[in-house]
Amino acid sequence: MIVKKLGVLGGMGPAASAEFMTRLTAHTVASCDQDHIPTILWSDPRVPDRSSSIRNGDNLPLPWLEHGVRGLQSAGCTHIVMPCNTAHFWYNDLVKLGTPITHIVDSVADELRRIEVINTRIGILGTQATVEMGLYTNHLDALGWQCIGASRHYMDNFVQPAIKLIKSNNIDSAHELLMYAINDLINSGVDAIVLGCTEIPLAVTQQSERNIPLINSIDSLVKSTISWYNS
Hints:
By secondary structure, this protein is α/β, with parallel strands linked by helices. The chain has helices spanning 14-27, 50-56, 61-74, 91-95, 104-114, 128-132, 135-142, 152-167, 171-187, 217-230, and strands at 6-10, 39-43, 79-81, 121-125, 146-149, 192-195, 208-209, 212-216. The chain folds into two domains: 6-103 and 220-230, Rossmann fold (3-Layer(aba) Sandwich); 104-216, 3-Layer(aba) Sandwich (Rossmann fold). The strands form two sheets. The protein has a five-stranded mixed beta sheet with strand order 5-4-6-8-7, sandwiched between helices. α5 crosses α10. The longest helix is centred in the last third of the chain and has 17 residues, at 171-187. The two termini are 14 Å apart.
C-alpha cells in the first residue's frame, strides 16, 4: 500500500507558500492532528525570478525547480503541487521527473465548474509573464471559456506594481491597486475573475466584487489537493 504524502514546491514567494499551507490546514476536515494531510514544504526563495526568465528565455529557474522536486521525492512525496502560477511554465519539464503534479489551471477550471461559471467570459489577473505565456488563456479557452486579460495600461500601472508591493509586505497599497484592475475587468463584462497569481489573494481576500466571483487560485489548488488525498 502506497502511503500518500504531499510535496509543496514553494518559496515563490514564501508568503504564498505559507498561505497555501495555512489554507490547506483550514479547509481539511479534521478532528485531530492525525486527520490532516502529511506534507513536506520545500520553500526555497532563491529560485530565480520566473517572470524575468520567461521574458529573457534563459530558463534559469528550471534547475532549481528540478532540485526541489528531487528533494521532495527523496522525502517520500507521492504527489506535488506548486503554489506559484508562473512556475507552471516549466510544468512539462517537471512532470518528466516521475511524480504527478497538479496543474494549478486544472484546479481553477474545476472551481469554475463547481460554481457553474461555464463557457463564459472570464477575467485573468496575473503576472505579465503568466499572461504573455498564455498559461490560462491557452488552457481554459480550449475548455470553452473566453479569457480576458487586464489591458497593458492596467498591467503596467496597477497589477505588476501591486504584486511587487505584496512581495514587500505592503498589502493595503496592493489591494487598492488591484481593485482598480478588478473593476476594469468587471466593466468589460466578465462573469468571473481568476486571481491567477498566488500573491494576489494575499491582498484580495474577498470572494466576490459587485456580485462577480473572484476565483482564488490558492484555494482552488487547496481543494484539488484535498480531493486527491481523499480519493
